[in-house]
Amino acid sequence: MVIAIDGPAGAGKSTVAGKLAQKLNILHLDTGAMYRAAALYALEQGADPADGRAAEALVPQIGVTVEPSAGGQRTFLNGRDVSAAIREHRVSRAASDFSAHPCVRRKMAALQREIASALDMVLDGRDIGTYVLPNADFKFFLTADLEERARRRASELAQKGCPARYEEVLEDLAQRDKNDSSRALAPLKKAEDAIAVDTTRNSADEIVGQLAAVIKDEVGRTK
After folding, report:
1. What is the rounded CA–CA span in Å between residue 44 and residue 4?
2. Between β-strands 74-77 and 195-198, what pairing exists: parallel, antiparallel or unpaired?
3. pLDDT at 121 over 80
4. Phi, psi of 10 (to 5 degrees)
5. What sign has the CA pseudo-torsion 6, 12, 17, 18?
6. What span, in angstroms and rounded, lies between the C-alpha atoms of 16 and 50?
7. What is the pTM of this model?
């Protein structure tokens, strides 16, 4: 069983996906972490994440792998654990630009398809249900008001010891929405057969309950 959860930054995808995977006792793949790792490499090489030619040159050098752990997914960049480093605000900014390059998306999508091919899994990202795994068994598209997403992201960064001003986070999210929705390859959009879920006024546990109920009902009908 493959479950795709897409949506804009800050809509709660990773949190919901992790909790849903735990509830269903299957794995969770945080695809955003993979793009962040790739962007981190670009930054470490002194490259401009928005530079397409630089991306073409760097992509063959980037090796991203993931491992499940008790505390969630561990993400490795060329064998180095970067699970904490990729959560820095500067990396989030860079990931939005770097992930827009077709060469980057193609490589990450291929890795994600390979990982999901052998295991039951929940994947969250921007284009899982439309590009990476269009034949996923279940597709959900999470949304939330921009202001609420900015508040959540600012709070999350503060809890992780990487505080950022709300206004700065709000501006960054608005720009990321624009970047994600307008890129040439696999732009952010709701798959036609995805179920839209507004998370603005609901907790992660409430959303997980909604998604689990949909899955349970569908599985029950098909048995």
Report:
1. 31
2. unpaired
3. yes
4. 85, 5
5. positive
6. 30
7. 0.89
Q: In this predicted model, what pLDDT tens digit does every residue of 39-49 receive, in sequence order?
A: 999 999 999 99
Separation between Cα atoms, residue 171 and residue 162, nearest integer Å = 17
Residue 41: partners with Cβ closer than 8 Å, 6 or more residues away: 58, 61, 62, 77, 78
Whether residue 71 has pLDDT greater than 80: no
Distance CA 87, CA 83 (A): 7
CA of residue 201 relative to chain centroid, distance:
21
Mean predicted confidence (pLDDT) in 149-161: 88
Contacts 24+ apart (CB under 8 A), 154-162: 157/87, 157/89, 160/87, 162/87, 162/88, 162/89
Q: Is the pLDDT of residue 147 over 80?
A: yes
Q: Which domains are present in the chain?
A: 2-214 (3.40.50.300)
Average pLDDT, integer, range 169-185: 91
Specify the length of the chain in residues.
223
